[in-house]
C-alpha cells in the first residue's frame, strides 16, 4: 500500500480471545494514534469478529512497513484475515447506469463537491442517453448496448474496458437495469453495490413502484446492497423509506422514490469508501 | 342514528359529476357548518370517489332526520353508498389478544387517558395471562382456548360472546396469534384491524423478526391492516419503521419492534374510530 | 386566466355556513368534475376557513368565464377571497442563490426532469460562481453583487431585472445568503420561499450547523418558509430532520444537512406550485 | 465491584497514544473476551478520548480484582479516568414524576417486561395522583408536595428519602414539572436524566406545545438530556420528532407528543443503563 499517515485496519474472522490486544499492540508499537475504533462480535461464545480501526501513523514510510510485518505475524498466529488501507488513497469507482439519471447525477455531484472521496474511472451504460451528464463532469462514458443475445459479449466488453481503464475498486449500479451475470461478478474483481428501488425484501424483482401502489403501502423505500448472483438477495448495506399516501399513483411513487434511492445509494457508497462495511456471512456490519 | 350536533358523512362510490354539490347542498339546507372536508377521486375519468365531511348541525333532533331523508334521495339518484355517523357516539370495540401485552396495554392506556374515543366491549384471549391487565381497567376478559381442533368451536364461542355483549363496531387483533377463519370474518359483522409485526409485504407470515434478522435489514416495521381471509393481504391502514443495526439480534429486534407495533396499531385504530379510513377496492383512503 | 380544462379553486376567509355548498354548486353548474377537495376550518365556531378544490371543466373556453362570474357573485355575497387557477399554466419562478450550489442544482434538475411544473425566469446571485450551473440548463443568470452599502441599489436592480423578464409568480431563495429588505418584499409582488438550514425556531440566525454541533443535538434539520421582514419568522411550509451523532463535526453536519435542505426546499416549492399552501395568519395550511 | 462474568470498561480522558493497547493488554492478560468495543477521539491531534468495551471474564472472582489492579496502574501512568462496571448489576433508579402518567407508565412497563435492566428504588412525586400506578407494580411511591416556599425543604426530604432507600445510581425525571435546584443536583450523587417536551433548543422553557402550535411547526419533538443547573441546557442524550400538520391544535400536539416523549426517554434511560453514554464536556458520546 501507499504510505500516507492516515490508515485503517479491517478485520473479519471467527472470534477468539486476544485479537484486540494483539492488534492494538501492533499499532502502539508503530506509534499509531487510534482515532476511532469499532468492534463487534456476533456471539460471545464463538461467533464472528469484526473490527475497524482508524489511526494516524507518524513517519508512515518507515513505520507502515513495520506495521504490515507485525500484522502478518498476528494474522498467521491467530488465523485471521485483515486489510490495511491507506485512508488517503481514493478508491477507483466505475458507475453502471441505464436511462434513469437521478442516481448518476447525484453521485457525480457529490464527487464533484468533494463529499465522496473516490476517483471515477468511467461511466458505463447500455444506453447513450446519459453521456452528456458524464461529459459535464469530464468523466469517460462508454455506451455498450445489451440485448438478451449479446449479454455475454457486452459483459466481456465491460470487463475489458474496466481493465483498460486500470481496474476499479468498486462498481456502482446506479439504476443499471440489467442483471449482472454470475460470471461477470466472479470476474470483475471488485465489490458491486446495487440500488434496488424498494424496501427489500418487499417488492423484489421488477416494477416495485407499480406493485407498491397496487398493494397500497403507506411507505416506499430503497435498498442498497452488494450484488450477488442471487438477484436482490445480496447483503444489505443501507435502507430508508419515505411516507406516501393514497394520493400518489405509481408514477408519483416512482418520482418520490427517486429521492430516497439516490440518498440510500449515496450513503451506501460513502460508507463503503470509508471502509465502514464489513461482511459476516450474508449480513453486513456497518460501523 | 342518535342525534348529537357533530356528525360525519362518508361516501364511497364510482366517480361522477355533481356529487359534492348535491351533498353540500343537502348539508347547507340542514344548516350544517362543515368544519373539515376531504375528497379524493382515483381517476378524473371514471374512477372511484371517496369523501369524508365533518360538520356541526344545530338542533340535530329535528334536522338530522331531514338530512337523512335528503341523503337517501341523493343516494338513490346518484347511485352512491353513504354513511352518516354521529361523531359523539363512541364505537364499541372488542380486543383480541394472545400473550404479548404491549399492544393491549397501549390501547387500554390510550382509552383510559381519553385519547381513543371508544367503548371497550371486552378483551378475548386464547390465553389467561393478560386477564390481570383487563381487570386493572375494569374491562371484561374472556379466556377461550384455541387449538387446531377446537378452532371452529372457539370462534363460535367468540361470536356468541360478542353477541351477548351487544355486538361490536370494530374488532382489534392486538397481537392475537391466531388466524381468524373466513367464516368468522363473514359473521362477525364488523371490520377487523390486525397488526402485523413487519413492514408488509416483507416478511408476511410467521416469525418476521427472526427472518428480518437473518436477512440483515436495516429497518424493521409494523403494518396495521384490515383482516381478510387472505392472510396478511388485507387493505393496509398504516405502516411505520424503525432503524436497527447489526448490533440487534432477533430478540432485540422483537423488543424494539414492539414500540413500532403499538404505535402503528394505535394510529390505525384512532383513524378508524374517527371514520378517516375508506376503502377503494383493496386499498385504503386515509383522510 | 387562460382556459385549460384543469383548474383549482382556492379560498381563504372567515368561516361561515354554506360556503362549500355555494362553491360546489357553482362548479357543478359549470359542469366541473371535482377530483380532489380539501377543506379545513380552524375552529367550528367562527374561525378561519381554507379550501382547495381541483377539478376538470369541459369546454373551458366558454365555461370558465361563466364560472368566474358565479364565483364573483358568491365572493361578494359571502365576503370571501378566492383564486381560480389554471392548473396547466406554469408558474414563473425566479431563483436567488449565493455560492452553495446544492439547492440550485436540485431545483434545476427537478425542473429539467419535469418534476417541478414551473418556468424558470432567471437565476440571480450576488456571486458569479454558479453561472455555469444555470448555463447548463439554458437559464439566464444575473450576477448582482451586494455589499452592506450597495444593498438598496442591488435590490432595485433585482426588481428591475424581474420586471424586464416579465415578472415572477414566485421567488425562491435557494441558500441566498442575504436578508431581503422589507422594501424588497413589499415590492416584489410575489411570495418568497426561503430555506433555512436548521429546524426553526432552533438555531435561527447565522451559523446553525456550528451551533448545532456545539449544542450536541442528535438531529439536524431544515425549514422552508415564506420570507417576511421578520427574519426566520415567516410561515413555515415544510420541515424535516436527519439523525446525526457525536461522530460528525460541524463541517460534516453541513454536508449532511445539505441533503435535507434541498429535499425540504423542493417539497415546499412543489406544494406551492400546486397551490397546496394557504395561509391562516402566520400559519400555513398545507393540503 | 461485584463479580459476574460480563463487564464494561468506560474511559474518558484527554487523547494520547497507546491507551487502547494498554487497556486491551490488561483485558487480554485477564483472559477477557471483548464482545464489543467503541472508541472515539474528538480530534486526532490532542482532543478528547472516549472508550467503551464490553467483555466476558472467566473466573471473575479471581480475575476481576487482578484486572482492577492493572487498570489502576494504567490510569495512573496515562492519567486517565476509568470505570469498571459489572454488567449484571442492575442500576438503582429513582423516578420523579408529577401528574402526566405516560412516561412513568412506559418506564414501569418496560421494566416489568424485562426490557430495562434496572431496579426501581422508588417513585417520588409532588402530587398524589400516580400512586396507583406505582402500586400496581409494587414500587414505593412517595408524595412530597412542592411549593415555591417549601422547595428547599421538599428537596431535602427527597434527598433523605433517597438515602433511606439506599441511594440511587440514576434519577429519571419522567415529566417532573419542577426545576431541580443546583443544590439538589450537587448533592444527589447520581446523574439525572430529564425529558423535555420539545426538540431542544427549540421551545426551551414552558409550554412548548402551545408555542409550537402558535409557530406552525411541521414536526414536534422531545429531548432527553442530563439535567444541569442551567435549565434545558444539559448534555443531550437522545432526540426524536414526529410529523404534525395544521389539523392538530395545541392539545392534539400534546397528545401526539406524549408518544415521542416516552420513546425518547426510554431510549435515553436504556442507553444510560447500558453505560453507552459518555461525556465530552457538555456533549454526549452515545456508543
Report a brief summary of the structure:
4 copies of one chain form a homotetramer. The first copy, chain A, is an alpha/beta fold.
Rg of Cα set of chain A: 21 Å
Report the portion of residues of chain A in β strands. Answer: 25-35%
Largest interface (CB < 8 Å)? A-B, 29 and 29 residues
Strand order of the largest sheet of chain A: 7-6-5-8-9-10-11
CATH superfamily of the largest domain in chain A: Formyl transferase, N-terminal domain
Unreliable parts of chain A? none
Q: Please name the CATH topology of the largest domain in chain A.
A: Rossmann fold
Helix content of chain A: 25-40%
What distance lies between the first and last C-alpha atoms of chain A, to the nearest angstrom?
23 Å
Number of helices of chain A: 8
Instruction: Using the 3D structure, state the CATH architecture of the largest domain in chain A.
Output: 3-Layer(aba) Sandwich
Overall body shape of chain A: globular
H/E element sequence of chain A: EHEEHEEHEHEHEHEHEEHEE
Give the quaternary arrangement of the chains: homotetramer
Mean pLDDT of chain A: 95
Tell me the count of domains of chain A.
2
Q: By helix and strand content of chain A, what is the structural category?
A: alpha/beta
Amino acid at each position: 500500500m501507499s504510505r500516507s499517515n492516515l490508515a485503517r485496519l479491517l478485520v473479519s474472522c471467527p472470534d477468539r480471545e486476544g485479537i484486540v490486544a494483539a492488534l492494538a499492540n501492533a499499532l502502539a508499537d508503530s506509534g499509531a494514534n487510534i482515532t476511532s475504533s469499532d468492534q463487534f462480535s456476533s456471539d460471545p461464545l464463538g461467533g464472528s469478529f469484526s473490527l475497524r480501526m482508524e489511526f494516524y501513523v507518524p513517519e508512515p514510510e518507515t513505520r507502515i512497513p513495520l506495521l504490515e510485518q507485525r500484522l502478518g505475524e498476528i494474522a498467521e498466529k491467530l488465523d485471521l484475515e485483515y486489510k490495511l488501507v491507506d485512508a488517503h488513497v481514493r478508491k477507483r469507482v466505475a458507475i453502471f447506469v441505464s436511462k434513469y439519471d437521478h442516481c448518476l447525477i447525484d453521485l457525480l455531484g457529490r464527487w464533484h463537491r468533494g463529499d465522496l472521496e473516490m476517483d471515477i474511472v468511467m461511466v458505463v451504460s447500455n444506453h447513450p442517453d446519459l453521456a452528456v451528464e458524464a461529459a459535464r463532469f469530464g468523466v469517460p462514458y462508454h455506451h455498450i448496448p445489451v440485448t438478451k443475445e449479446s449479454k455475454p459479449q457486452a459483459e466481456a466488453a465491460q470487463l475489458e474496458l474496466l481493465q483498460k481503464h486500470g481496474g476499479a475498486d468498486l462498481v456502482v449500479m446506479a439504476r443499471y437495469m440489467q442483471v449482472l451475470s454470475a460470471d461477470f461478478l466472479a470476474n470483475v474483481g471488485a465489490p458491486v453495490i446495487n440500488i434496488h428501488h424498494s424496501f427489500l425484501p418487499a417488492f423484489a424483482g421488477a416494477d416495485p413502484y407499480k406493485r407498491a401502489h397496487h398493494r397500497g403501502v403507506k411507505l416506499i423505500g430503497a435498498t442498497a446492497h452488494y450484488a450477488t448472483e442471487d438477484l436482490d438477495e445480496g447483503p444489505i448495506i443501507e435502507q430508508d423509506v419515505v411516507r406516501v399516501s393514497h394520493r400518489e399513483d405509481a408514477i408519483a411513487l416512482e418520482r418520490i422514490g427517486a429521492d430516497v434511492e439516490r440518498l440510500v445509494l449515496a450513503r451506501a457508497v460513502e460508507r463503503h469508501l470509508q471502509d465502514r462495511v464489513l461482511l459476516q456471512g450474508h449480513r453486513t456490519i456497518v460501523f
